[in-house]
Amino acid sequence: MSFDTPDDLRYLETHEWARIDTDDETARIGISEFAQDELGDIVFVEVPDTGETLTQQKEFGVVESIKAVSDLYAPLSGTVSAVNEELFDAPELVNDDPYGDGWMLELEDIDTDNIETLLTAKEYEEQIE
Amino acid sequence: MVLRTPPLRDVHADRGAKFTEFGGWDMPVEFDSIRTEHEAVRESAGLFDVSHMGEIEVRGPDATELMQRLTTNDVRKLSSGVGQYSAITDESGILIDDTVVYSLDDGYLFVPNAGHDEEIEERWRTHRDEWELDCTIENTTEQYAMFAVQGPDSVDLVDSATETTQAIDSFEIKTVTIDGIECLASRTGYTGEDGFELIVPWDDAETVWGAFDCQPCGLGARDTLRLEQGFLLSGQDFHHEENPRTPFEAGISFVVALDTEFVGRDELAEQTDPDEQFVGIELTERGVPRHGYDIVDADERIIGTVTSGTMSPTLERPIALGYVPAEYADPETDVWIDIRGREKAAYITNPPFEHSIE
């Protein structure tokens, strides 16, 4: 089974993605299609409040499926500027649309030096093959 | 560790199943989605491969005596072709396993949980020899596949697969023929739904599996279904060493026949009113309770531990099972569950959870 890995995103080895806008140093974050498929039915997402800061590679929350709890790791360092509150009532959006309506956080003031450490879509595809 | 594999492992893999280790077996945990499979069983029907369950057969003049002494329920109440839920306890009355015992024309067949078959077989042999009883004990776990057809449509499915109307009552077991294969069919299951369990010759498993056109289900859905009912999961809701519990603590006092002689009977007779009880817990805040999480009271004292927990697919609410001191066990008692350092409000309830909806 092959999974969608959009070219315009960068990825962390732990399956988080970041859609980065380098002009205004912001990014949107979620988990990959592969990750949501591995987890199965997602029933709960816990993410930090706006204003909190994330550090690249550090845990920032959890995603829970019916069968398991998984930590979420920050693909970039930055400050949380928005949270996808729709996930509180409809965590299944992460299963249905992991790169769209299932996004989790938006960051501002990202550390752009982090970007090159992230995997490209091609590199991430090779990892999950 | 080399995992034991069910006969249809490759068939399930081709169907897209994901697998998990359970009781030393490599079993399908999910075919499509736990939610999809769970809902199929509640609304129509699902087919589970439960070939990891053990089968042990006991035959001979003293078979009844051995079964009576090593299981807690009263096997003398069983007529041929009928089964009973029962428990196996040690000398202290601590649960080793729970099981279903079937009385057959020429002996007994009972079903220990995954990974327990060899230990239980040894226990039976040792006691038979010690008590000088005359019976044979055969562990047939890897001679039979076992499937469970569960859900409101399961009667129609089994009727059509066997090409005859099967009047099998609850806990009855009968020989049926499915696509030319002789199997044992019992009106049992562990999902809270009407259903059947089929004991099938290992080499004919694919034929019988293929005779049912319904949602294949993995152990993930089986776990959410049994949890909604408050049914025990051996090794998780009780464990002989790690979480020793008596049948009274574990809420299955109905399988303990104290008027019979069995191993652990005298100890259990002194403990019919245990200090801790197995309860259901429903969260009123967001979060998912899991095995091992602390249960705390209003004074933030740890009073117990969650043994099983999930987000209930039927109720769409977080539910849990666990043990609390008897003084906290009344329904509606407020408790909290510590979820990763945050205490989430909850209350005690009596499973099955489905029926606890106001």
First-to-last CA distance of chain B: 47 Å
> Count of helical segments of chain A?
4
Low-confidence stretches of chain A are: none
Strand line-up of the largest beta sheet of chain A: 1-2-3-9-8-5
C-alpha-based Rg of chain B, rounded: 20 Å
The shape of chain B is globular
Q: What structural class is derived from the secondary structure elements of chain A?
A: alpha+beta
Numbering strands along the chain, what is their spatial order in the largest sheet of chain B? Answer: 10-11-12-9-3-13
Structure classification of chain B: alpha+beta
User: Could you give a short account of the major beta sheet of chain B?
Assistant: 6 strands, mixed
Q: How many runs of DSSP E, i.e. beta strands of chain B?
A: 19
| Percent in helix of chain B | 10-25%
- Strand proportion of chain B: 25-35%
Largest sheet of chain A: 6 strands, antiparallel
Give helix % range of chain A.
Answer: 10-25%
Order of helices and strands of chain A: EEEHEEEEEHHEH
**Overall morphology of chain A:** globular
Could you characterize the architecture of this molecule?
- The complex is a heterodimer of chains A (129) and B (358).
- The longest helix of chain A has 8 residues, at 121-128.
- The mean pLDDT of chain A is 96.
- Chain A has helices spanning 33-39, 86-89, 93-96, 121-128, and strands spanning 10-11, 16-21, 26-31, 42-46, 53-54, 59-65, 69-73, 78-83, 105-108.
- With 129 residues, chain A is of the alpha+beta class.
- Chain A has 4 helices and 9 strands, in the order E-E-E-H-E-E-E-E-E-H-H-E-H.
- Chain A has a 6-stranded antiparallel β-sheet with strand order 1-2-3-9-8-5.
- In chain A, a hairpin with a 4-residue loop joins strand 1 (10-11) and strand 2 (16-21).
- By secondary structure, chain B is of the alpha+beta class.
- Helix content of chain B is 19%, strand content 33%.
- Chain B is built from 8 helices and 19 strands.
- Chain B has helices spanning 9-14, 34-43, 63-70, 117-131, 154-162, 205-209, 219-229, 265-269, and strands at residues 18-22, 25-30, 46-49, 56-59, 82-89, 95-104, 107-111, 136-139, 144-150, 173-178, 181-186, 195-201, 215-217, 276-283, 294-296, 302-311, 318-325, 334-339, 342-349.
- In chain B, strands 10-11-12-9-3-13 form a 6-stranded mixed β-sheet. Chain B has a 6-stranded antiparallel β-barrel with strand order 14-17-16-15-18-19. Chain B has a 5-stranded antiparallel β-sheet with strand order 5-6-7-4-8, with helices on one face.
- The radius of gyration of chain B is 20 Å and the shape is globular.
- Chain B starts with 8 loop residues before the first helix and ends in a 9-residue tail after the last strand.
- The model of chain B has no long low-confidence stretch (mean pLDDT 96).
- The A-B interface holds A 1, 40-41, 43-44, 62, 64-67, 69, 88 and B 16, 18, 29-30, 33-35, 220, 223-224, 286-288, 290, 310-311, 313, 340.
